[in-house]
Write a structure and sequence with these properties.
Shape: globular
Number of strands: 7
CATH architecture: 3-Layer(aba) Sandwich
Strand content: 5-15%
Number of domains: 1
Structural class: alpha/beta
Helix content: 40-55%
Strand order of the largest sheet: 1-7-6-2-5-3-4
Radius of gyration: 18 Å
Low-confidence stretches: 252-264
Length: 264
């Protein structure tokens, strides 16, 4: 009962927040449209908006590890991550990296949030449509060429069991076609914060995001798209397992050079 009351308060707060902040986002978009073609300022405001989902929530403690690996922060890259929960999306905005999401069409229909996604020129994908997929790839190429990173969840949807599942090839085909670096991010601890098909906020969850070393295009020039897909998937899966073992107090090998880092 307490969890349901807390969840009702939380979602009411989210609703008021979105209604209140969207007009500001629209005003920023309107004023900066002539000179801020990347939507840099609007994205920074959107980061603040998304952070207001997690900062005041006592149930979710979000930390960023190895944020220095994302420098320089405005370099166009293909950012990929595993996907465990709805919380992953506002949590990723805690990195303050400049990017455009690749997101399913349904998310663009959400009042206020979806409208803001359109203002930010995030990239829409109608899953299951070859035509939409081709359009998405063109939009991603144009976005990278304009100086913005692209963020993709290569699993395509949230994990059903808290483990890293299979990766789709799109992000890695994009990397091969454009010659852009890949920035892998591993998310751990969010799977029970808001599980798939769940809206009740319950328990305390320490959510960690670990930024891995960028994968430079020279390192995958000779790899096929499938080989690159498998390599990055195995890298993220291994790191996720190591982070889960760390939480449980068991020693596990993670990416070379990793060490605990302060939250960002």
């Amino acid at each position: 009962m307490l969890a349901r009351i807390t969840s009702t308060i939380f979602w009411f707060y989210i609703g008021i927040l979105c209604i209140s902040l969207f007009p500001i986002a629209f005003l920023i978009w309107l004023i900066t449209l002539p000179f801020d073609r990347r939507g840099w300022l609007l994205h920074k405001f959107t980061c603040f908006w998304a952070n207001m989902f997690t900062w005041p929530n006592p149930h979710w403690n979000v930390t960023i590890e190895h944020s220095e690996r994302a420098r320089p922060r405005n370099t166009p890259r293909i950012i990929v991550s595993n996907h465990l929960s709805m919380v992953d999306i506002p949590a990723v905005f805690r990195t303050w990296l400049h990017f455009k999401w690749v997101s399913k069409s349904e998310n663009f229909k959400i009042p206020f949030v979806g409208w803001n996604m359109r203002l930010n020129r995030h990239i829409e994908l109608d899953r299951g449509s070859n035509k939409s997929n081709a359009k998405m790839m063109r939009s991603c190429e144009e976005t990278l060429a304009s100086g913005s990173s692209v963020f993709i969840f290569p699993e395509g949807t949230r994990s059903a069991n808290g483990r890293v599942s299979g990766f789709k090839r799109g992000a890695f085909e994009l990397a091969k076609r454009t010659g852009r670096p890949i920035l892998p991010i591993v998310i751990e601890g969010s799977e029970k914060a808001l599980p798939k098909k769940g809206v009740v906020v319950r328990g305390f969850h320490r959510i960690r995001m670990r930024i891995l070393d960028p994968i430079e295009p020279e390192s995958f020039a000779e790899e096929s798209v499938q080989e690159l897909t498998d390599r990055v998937r195995n890298l993220i899966r291994t790191e996720h397992e190591a982070m889960s073992a760390e939480r449980a107090g068991s020693p596990a090998k993670s990416q070379k050079g990793d060490s605990p880092a302060p939250a960002s």
